[in-house]
């Protein structure tokens, strides 16, 4: 058993009357679009298509075959990382059958052998991506690529794996996709599918359409100057250049005829005429529309907010410039948000000083709870980050046109050469106010389980939407996180093709600070209790968030893969309940590849 010390627990797992049908999963799309920038001319790239052969081992020199174990070496529900000489594979035994796939998660390279095996899929221990063990296909996100699948055979009680050397090296597989039939026949001002926004939701939508065989025109447009990139790295790895964090290379987009209009802003949408009007007057007709515009960072409202060296981190250029200006200088960060805290952690070793200003008395209080927030705060303080809590900025002062001081409402004056603002964001939906698309009081686009708006043919996804979350009894929620944006994009694409697929996924997120990560699964909004297992002072803990005795979310630090295990329980439609009598508390203990429950007495 995998056990957290010091606490005994009682668990009640409630299984629905009808086991929830497996949510339709298919590899997260990988798309290669045609790059197309509107600056008076259109540039079309047609790369030669190289079909994937039906026999993946058509080149004998690229094939390796090796005996990796005896058939009795693995029990059902077990996984083992095996070495084939020129690379490793993940060998899995489930229901008496052996399967072999890539051993690293294609997202960030996590070892899947340390993940969670459940009902025909393996879940990444780091960020929660899920892969079908029979096909290697990605079934939940983040990430774009699937796992390579290898042939397994049994001879004389020995297990053999036959694999492509190239696949063993790359540890990833891009699903086959269709191409546009004939772009030359299209009017530049019309498209079958228009995607507004080129983040994770927009890209996955485009890739999924191609994966499902859609061969009509797809156009993505973005206010950004870059092709889609790994936005979470803007605050976690701030000196990364755009090409280093690109989700797909330019050639990929060209190969699969996904057009990208960069530095193009949609100013209005006429849903009756099915026309998007751009800020520069350009108009484009569409048949199906996806709105995935994300959010817009909030700015300060005080005097001096427009001053030089005051930043909202929105682009790679923003992040790069902050790092350059902050080196050996004084940095003030406003807002102990995920972005603010990650930026503070990244700059702590580079800047002369890092000060963080926050209205609450503890970072992350509403999200992780006060006890976890205090533990994180203590970690930051031990790394030279100074907190100024329960106060706000009243003024930014300049000297010779550049930021010099940040004045707080408490009266404290902080020296500042750079100021980063991380006080939240609002949905980027202002251009839709007169469109007839249903927008709630906070500016979020309201969609159903199929990511459809109230307007036929118009879908929305990502940070700008509220949608029914099955995990919380279909309560309409906004989940502005990377994994969820991927899934939104996929569900929207499938329903553009009339698949009738409803979203059913467990939110999963992570934050990285000082080389440590907090993993989180579920939706803890409105939690009324937090049950802590482990040692907060040692930053080795699990926190269960409950509402009316039901576990609605879990967070952990240095206790992988507990969050992925809980995510699998929740994804299966089971309810975990805390038992309150006799000071018993909730805790999960799992047998590898299986889920077992311990009962005991609390401390």
Automatic annotation (TrEMBL):
One MF annotation (Gene Ontology) recorded for this entry: 2 iron, 2 sulfur cluster binding
One GO biological process term:
execution phase of apoptosis
In its keyword annotation, does this UniProt entry include Flavoprotein? yes
**Per its UniProt record, what InterPro entries does this chain match?**
FAD-oxidoreductase/Apoptosis, FAD/NAD-bd_sf, FAD/NAD-binding_dom, FAD/NAD-linked_Rdtase_dimer_sf, Reductase_C, Rieske_2Fe-2S, Rieske_2Fe-2S_sf
CDD domains listed in its UniProt record: Rieske_AIFL_N
A Pfam family annotated for this UniProt entry:
Reductase_C
- Give UniProt keywords alphabetically: 2Fe-2S, Apoptosis, Electron transport, FAD, Flavoprotein, Iron, Iron-sulfur, Metal-binding, Mitochondrion, Oxidoreductase, Transport
| Rieske domain location | 66-161
Per UniProt, subcellular location reads as: Mitochondrion
Q: Which PANTHER family does the record associate with it? A: APOPTOSIS-INDUCING FACTOR 1 (PTHR43557), APOPTOSIS-INDUCING FACTOR 3 (PTHR43557:SF8)
Name of the protein in its database record: Apoptosis-inducing factor 3
In which organism is this protein found? Nesospiza acunhae
């Amino acid at each position: 058993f995998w056990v957290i010390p010091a606490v005994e627990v009682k668990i009640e797992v409630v299984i629905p009357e009808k086991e929830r049908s497996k949510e339709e999963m298919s590899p997260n799309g990988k798309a290669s679009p045609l790059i197309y920038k509107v600056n008076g001319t259109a540039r079309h790239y047609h790369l030669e298509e190289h079909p994937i052969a039906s026999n993946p081992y058509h080149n004998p020199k690229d094939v390796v075959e090796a005996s990796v174990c005896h058939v009795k070496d693995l029990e059902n529900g077990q996984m083992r990382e095996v070495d084939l000489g020129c690379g490793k594979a993940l060998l899995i035994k489930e229901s008496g059958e052996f399967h072999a796939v890539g051993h690293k998660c294609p997202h960030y390279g996590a070892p899947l052998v340390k993940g969670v095996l459940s009902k025909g899929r393996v879940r990444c221990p780091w960020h929660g991506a899920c892969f079908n063990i029979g096909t290697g296909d990605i079934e939940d996100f983040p990430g774009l690529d699937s796992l390579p699948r290898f042939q397994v055979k049994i001879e004389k009680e020995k297990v053999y794996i036959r694999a492509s050397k190239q696949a063993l090296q790359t540890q990833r597989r891009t699903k086959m996709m269709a191409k546009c039939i004939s772009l030359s026949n299209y009017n530049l001002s019309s498209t079958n599918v228009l995607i507004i926004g080129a983040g994770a939701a927009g890209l996955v939508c485009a890739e999924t359409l191609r994966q499902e065989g859609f061969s009509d025109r797809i156009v993505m447009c973005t206010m950004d100057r870059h092709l889609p990139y790994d936005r979470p790295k803007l605050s976690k790895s701030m000196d990364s250049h755009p090409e280093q964090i690109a989700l797909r290379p330019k050639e990929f987009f060209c190969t699969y005829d996904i057009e990208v209009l960069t530095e193009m802003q949609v100013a209005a949408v006429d849903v009756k005429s099915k026309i998007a009007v751009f800020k520069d007057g350009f108009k484009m007709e569409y048949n199906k529309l996806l709105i995935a515009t994300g959010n817009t960072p909030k700015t300060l409202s005080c005097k001096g907010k427009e001053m030089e060296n005051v930043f909202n981190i929105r682009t790679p250029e923003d992040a790069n410039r902050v790092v350059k200006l902050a080196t050996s200088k004084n940095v003030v960060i406003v807002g102990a948000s995920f972005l603010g805290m990650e930026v503070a952690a990244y700059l702590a070793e580079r800047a002369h000083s890092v000060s963080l200003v926050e209205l609450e008395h503890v970072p992350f209080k509403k999200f992780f709870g006060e006890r976890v927030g205090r533990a994180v705060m203590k970690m930051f303080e031990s790394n030279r980050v100074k907190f100024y809590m329960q106060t706000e900025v009243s003024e930014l002062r300049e000297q010779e046109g550049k930021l010099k001081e940040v004045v707080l409402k408490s009266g404290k004056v902080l020296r500042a050469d750079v100021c980063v603002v991380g006080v939240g964001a609002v949905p980027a939906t202002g251009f839709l106010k007169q469109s007839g698309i249903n927008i709630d009081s906070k500016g979020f686009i309201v969609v159903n389980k199929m990511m459809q708006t109230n307007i036929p043919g118009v879908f929305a996804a990502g940070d700008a939407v509220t949608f029914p979350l099955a995990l919380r009894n279909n309560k309409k929620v906004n989940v502005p996180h990377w994994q969820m944006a991927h899934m939104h994009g996929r569900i929207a694409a499938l329903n553009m093709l009339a698949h009738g697929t409803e979203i059913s996924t467990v939110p999963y997120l992570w934050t990285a600070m000082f080389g440590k990560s907090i993993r989180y699964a579920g939706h803890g909004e409105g939690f009324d209790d937090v049950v802590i297992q482990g040692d907060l002072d040692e930053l080795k803990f699990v926190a269960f968030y409950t509402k009316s005795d039901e576990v609605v979310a879990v967070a952990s630090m240095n206790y992988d893969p507990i969050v992925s295990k809980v995510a699998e329980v929740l994804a299966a439609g089971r309810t975990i309940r805390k038992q309150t009598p006799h000071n018993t508390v909730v805790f999960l203990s799992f047998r590898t590849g299986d889920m077992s429950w311990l009962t005991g007495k609390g401390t």
